[in-house]
Amino acid sequence: MPFSLQSLLSGVVAPDLLAPLLCLVLIALMIRAGVMDHPVHRSSHTRPIPKGGGIGIIGAFLLCLAPALYLTHQPFFTGPIFGLASGVILLAAVSWLDDLYSFPARYKLAAQFIAAALAAFGSGASLPMTGLFILGAVFITNALNFIDGINGLASGVMALAALFLAASGIQPVIFVLYAICLLAFLPCNFPKARIFMGDVGSQSGALIIAWGAMQPHRLAGLLTLALLSGVLWDVLFTLARRARAGDRLAQAHRGHLYQLAVRSGMPMPLVTMIYWGFVLWGALACAATQPWETVLLVLLPQLCWTGYICTRAKARVQDRW
């Protein structure tokens, strides 16, 4: 098992105690600001809910990051960490403005590539590997944004993934801090939502998780993909199914597996917890001795889940999916 409690605890520092308070204060301010997410035909909620909870998550993370690194004698202004912080700030700012004003997709995609490049170029990897990191980070950013459609799913997945990355010894100070910020937000969103993360939380937060795959650790890439396997499989399968059907891939829809599960009558909290379970299973799969064994173990529950949900949707979902 590539995880240890010692690695996890090595990331716990004093600013972690302040982060939940800062997160909750910022969330309270965003609830009072009243920037609402009004339901549309593809929404899972039926009444307007405040959005911008991601400002609490990302704001608390960034405010506590430098003190946490200082106390553990890690410089903030180094390539990897400064690149991550710069990318997160850029993507958070653009995502929040998009939540307010709804930019064209090309502007958001450009911001994602620039933010991913800022994070990746600090990794010290070769140019081809840096390009791969950038593409992977943009895909993960969009995947977690697409999956942030029901209460607690994306935030819970990212919180668990951050904890496992820390427990594996991958930047434990950073990932413990990020997990704490997400866990402070989670009760405000699950099982009933007082506020949504919005793009500012799902996109810039996803970049932090994707950055974990860029670290010089033998398991970094495989572990990150395994932890996010439920999310990544859902998005890839849905894109492939819609492409085969001739649907416009950029068009908003309600055809993701998690959405079909809810539309077919499964309780929303149960669907969320199943995706949390995929993170736990992905972590266990990384205990396999060979990478191909990990891949097979990760794919098995995804294939079972896909078959079950498609069969259930055919029987219970009346409109097109």
UniProtKB/TrEMBL annotation:
It is a multi-pass membrane protein. It is found in: Cell membrane. Keywords: Cell membrane, Membrane, Transferase, Transmembrane, Transmembrane helix. PANTHER family: PHOSPHO-N-ACETYLMURAMOYL-PENTAPEPTIDE-TRANSFERASE, UNDECAPRENYL-PHOSPHATE ALPHA-N-ACETYLGLUCOSAMINYL 1-PHOSPHATE TRANSFERASE. InterPro entries: Glycosyl_transferase_4. This is LPS biosynthesis protein. It comes from the Bacteria. Pfam families: Glycos_transf_4. Its main location: membrane. The chain crosses the membrane at residues 12-31, 52-71, 77-97, 109-140, 160-186, 193-213, 219-239, 260-282, 294-311. The keyword Transferase applies. Signal peptide: none annotated.
